[in-house]
Amino acid sequence: MSRSAPQSLTPSLTRSRGDAAEQAALDYLRQQGLRVVARNVRFRVGEIDLIMLDANVCVFVEVRMRSPSRFGSAAISVNYGKRRRLIRAAHCWLQSHSRQSL
């Protein structure tokens, strides 16, 4: 008798949960006074979920959601490789917007 592996979340369900988490983060940051500059910015080297301004400071936001937390917090899931891709993507974005006023 063979046992099938437990079914994981479907890609569309995972995406909708991720979109909801990103919207919740965006709503929260707006309530804190930050302004949206861009969403879901993609470069060859990586992706940035949200780019926002806090007064005159550019803020790059990675939105993570984990449930259940038995594997650690969402912050812990941003490992070295992910941080490196985020930094590279932020550099790309800053270079492409260096002459523009935010």
Which terms summarize this structure?
single chain, alpha+beta, 2 helices, 3 strands, 23% strand, globular, disordered N terminus
Write structural notes for this entry.
This protein is of the alpha+beta class and 102 residues long. Helices cover 37% and strands 23% of the residues. The chain has two helices and three strands; from the N terminus they run H-E-E-E-H. A three-stranded antiparallel beta sheet has the order 1-2-3. The N and C termini lie far apart (62 Å). Residues 1-6 have low confidence and may be disordered.
Mean pLDDT over the full residue set: 83
> Largest sheet, order of strands side by side?
1-2-3
Number of helices: 2
Sheet with the most strands? 3 strands, antiparallel
Give the H and E element order. Answer: HEEEH
The helical percent reads 25-40%
What is the general shape?
Answer: globular
Structural category: alpha+beta
> Low-confidence spans: pLDDT under 50, at least 5 residues?
1-6
Cα gyration radius (Å): 17 Å
User: How much of the polypeptide forms β-strand, as a percent range?
Assistant: 15-25%
Span of the ends, CA to CA:
62 Å
Number of strands: 3
Please specify the SSE layout and strand pairing:
Layout: H1 11-31, E1 35-43, E2 46-54, E3 57-61, H2 80-96
Antiparallel strand pairs: 1-2, 2-3
